[in-house]
Amino acid sequence: MASKQEQLNQINAKIAVCQKCPLAKTRTNTVPGTGNINTDIVFIGEGPGKSEDEQGIPFMGAAGRILNEMLEKIKLDRQDIFITNIVKCRPPKNRDPKITEKNICNTYLQQQLALINPTLIIPLGRHAMEYFLPNAKISETHGKPQVIITATGKSQVIYPLYHPAAALYNPRTKLVIADDFALIPSLIKKYKNV
């Protein structure tokens, strides 16, 4: 049987050649995700931006610098977590991903999550949160863990947070994000092996 890393490499290989939606025509690189496949934490953004499209790595721009800063405050770095997006290719001009694009990429995200099997899934921002909590409002649910039942019948902890990019435009939001991040270590302890 293939190792977890080999299985992830197979998922990444499928993403790299995917032509299932129009985003494939405008991308420079696919951005499948990076990090530790044995982690308890998976961060999920909405989609790659310009820097990510150029480098093939999620959260490499200004929002990524804020994410790194927040991780550092809780004594983690990118090697400790896994980071991916709802869609694996950059939407043109950084527009919001369309429902059809999200639905097409859903298979890849579900494969990644099933393989990694994290204790905590952390959607960053409204679009990523809506994937797991369709009727929620990020302003009301950020920083509040939600237990959902997945399609496979497994319970999963979703911990929605504001997208780090929100901190670029509003210093108060950065403080809120920092407070929400501060709870991550205790949430891992609480929900691990539950």
What do you see in this structure?
This protein is α/β, with parallel strands linked by helices and 194 residues long. It is 45% helix and 12% strand. The chain has a single domain, classed as Uracil-DNA Glycosylase, subunit E (3-Layer(aba) Sandwich), CATH 3.40.470. It is built from 10 helices and 6 strands, in the order H-H-E-E-H-H-E-H-E-H-H-E-E-H-H-H. The protein has a 6-stranded mixed β-sheet. Strand 5 and strand 6 (155-158) form a beta hairpin. The longest helix has 18 residues, at 99-116.
CATH class: Alpha Beta
Estimated radius of gyration: 16 Å
Give average pLDDT, whole number: 94
CATH architectural type = 3-Layer(aba) Sandwich
How far apart the termini lie comes to: 27 Å
Write the layout of secondary structure elements.
Layout: H1 4-16, H2 23-26, E1 34-35, E2 41-45, H3 50-55, H4 62-73, E3 82-85, H5 99-116, E4 120-123, H6 126-132, H7 138-141, E5 146-149, E6 155-158, H8 166-169, H9 171-182, H10 184-191
Parallel strand pairs: 2-3, 2-4, 4-6
Antiparallel strand pairs: 1-3, 5-6
